[in-house]
Amino acid sequence: MTAVLVIAGAEIRAARRNRWVLATTLLLAALALTLAFLGSAPTGTVGAGALEVTVVSLSSLTIFLVPLIALLLSYDAIVGEAERGTLLLLLSYPMERWQIVLGKFLGHLAVLAFATALGYGAAGLVLGWSEAAPDAESWVAFADMIGSSIVLGAAFLALGYLVSVAVRDRGFAAGLAIGLWLALVLLYDMALLGILVADQGKSITAGLFNDLLLLDPADIYRLFNLSGFAKVSLFSGMAGLSGEAQFGRAALLAALAAWVVVPLTLAALLFRRKQF
Predict the structure, then answer these.
(1) Whole-number Cα distances in Å, 226 to 59, 145, 153, 211
(2) Among 19, 64, 160, 207, which one has the highest count of C-beta atoms within 10 angstroms of its own C-beta?
(3) What is the distance between the alpha carbons of residues 24 and 52, in angstroms, rounded to a whole number?
(4) Which residue segment(s) compose the domain that 14 sits in?
(5) Where are the alpha helices (DSSP H) in the chain?
(6) Structural Rg of the chain based on CA atoms
(7) Residue 129 burial (10 A CB sphere; 0-12, 13-18, 19+)
């Protein structure tokens, strides 16, 4: 475990030198604060408080932004070291290859978790100081949104590590990471919608549709945050879906966690067998 922590610490220091921590934190904080200030405008007409509006807005933003940041952090974690010639030196140390993968992953996850918690937490503090104090359920929804955003980032970090281990060219890894982001964040939902329109309810039942949503971590994240609380689901337009959902919040969180464990395990196994 000491070797894992050493590798993780090295990744955190490298991110600090490259200004990844500062840039990511400032970006997330700026966007979160902007949405927090703008999100209070419609609350009087829809029956939702400013914090619920912010949860919906930040959840929609997170689906696009956090996976991209995670992939940019991780796509060259292994293949980049190989191209720079530093991977062979790292492999010469007395540690298992899975420890290298896990250590690097934990270092990048710490960077992403710090930036997300601090950036989004700033919006929560601003709303906490507002005149209309949110209730306990709203704070739980906001805290769950931050925690699940970190898990979503971890899922795409793991996918980025799988890409980084699977290829031998850093440029190809970058293109594959962007393609993965497009496929899971944008194209999957469009394809699923097209299939539903073409099927017209003949083959794809509501249960099968819910199962298909679990094949995309972004959709799991969306379901977890936008349909779990009454006020949030009302404002997000998913109140009807939340009543028909066959998966509870614990099951959705477990499914999202599986998107972390499975790709990271595959990356460790592939890295163990790969020759450099």
Answers:
(1) 8, 9, 17, 17
(2) 160
(3) 24
(4) 2-273
(5) 2-17, 20-38, 43-46, 50-74, 79-84, 87-91, 97-128, 136-166, 170-181, 188-199, 206-213, 217-226, 230-236, 239-244, 249-273
(6) 20
(7) exposed
Backbone angles phi, psi at 223, to 5 degrees: -65, -40
- How many beta carbons lie within 10 A of that of residue 180, not counting itself? 18
Number of domains in the chain: 1
**Residue 93, φ and ψ in degrees, nearest 5:** -75, 155
How confident is the model at residue 229, as a pLDDT?
59
How many CB atoms are located within 10 Å of the residue 168 CB? 13
**pLDDT means per 10 residues in the chain (276 residues)?**
88 84 85 74 53 80 92 92 88 89 95 92 75 69 90 97 93 94 93 84 77 91 76 52 65 94 96 84
DSSP letter at 182? Answer: I
What pLDDT score does 45 carry? 47
User: What is the rounded distance in angstroms from the CA atom of residue 86 to the CA atom of residue 38?
Assistant: 47
Distance CA 205, CA 199 (A): 10
CA distance linking residue 145 with residue 227, whole number of Å: 12
Q: pTM of the full predicted structure?
A: 0.89
